[in-house]
Q: What sequence folds into this?
């Protein structure tokens, strides 16, 4: 049947990743640009987690937080989580995490075990404010990765910058017209103009074009 792709605000949300290996690191790396407060719990940590922790201190991922806890996870670690990812190579650990989260209605993803998940981690395409998630309902991560690469190769250059600027211009467009259809037409023209310039436009340039449409 497939899963419906809700897009959830993660800024400030408390996420727990149990596991300290390469897979756990990749999950953390993909999540942090969305601003959650992540706790990673494992007896041993891949050294890349330490480098990632230092990068956060430079403001690379604004608003995100990363806490590394080197010990075995307990139920108390999961109690107030907004979401949990089990990325260990121990089946029993993954099982109790899944059971606990399901019993307490905490969204849980268990890596490489579809039946223990209540949500799936999508393959992501991200360019600024644009986020595209690709899911195969947990059936084939390889297929999701292939589709991600295909999409990335076909995205117009400068698309992320264009979308961000158009978002900033929306209040100005609302001032110009109270008609929804007319506003949509104006935004479409601004979008088309930006694409023709490969996203190499400025807010001032688009604002001048906008008021030239009046």
A:
């Amino acid at each position: 049947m497939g899963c419906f792709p809700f897009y959830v605000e993660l800024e400030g949300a408390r996420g727990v990743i149990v596991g300290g290996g390469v897979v756990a690191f990749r999950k953390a790396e993909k999540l942090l640009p969305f601003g959650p407060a992540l706790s990673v719990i494992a007896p041993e940590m891949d050294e890349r987690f330490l480098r990632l922790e230092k990068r956060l201190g430079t403001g690379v991922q604004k608003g995100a937080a990363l806490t590394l806890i080197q010990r075995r996870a307990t139920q108390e670690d999961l109690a107030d989580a907004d979401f949990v990812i089990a990325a260990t190579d121990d089946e029993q650990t993954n099982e109790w995490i899944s059971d606990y989260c399901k019993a307490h209605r905490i969204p849980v993803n268990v890596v490489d075990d579809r039946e223990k998940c209540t949500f799936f981690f999508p393959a992501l395409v991200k360019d600024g404010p644009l986020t595209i998630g690709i899911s195969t309902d947990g059936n084939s991560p390889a297929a999701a990765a292939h589709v991600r690469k295909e999409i990335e190769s076909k995205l117009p250059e400068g698309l992320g910058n264009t979308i961000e600027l158009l978002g900033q211009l929306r209040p100005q467009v609302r001032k110009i017209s109270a008609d929804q259809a007319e506003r949509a037409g104006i935004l479409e023209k601004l979008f088309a103009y930006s694409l023709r310039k490969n996203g190499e436009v400025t807010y001032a340039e688009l604002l001048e074009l906008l008021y030239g449409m009046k």
Notes: The mean pLDDT is 90. Strands lie at 14-18, 37-41, 65-69, 83-86, 108-110, 123-127, 130-134.
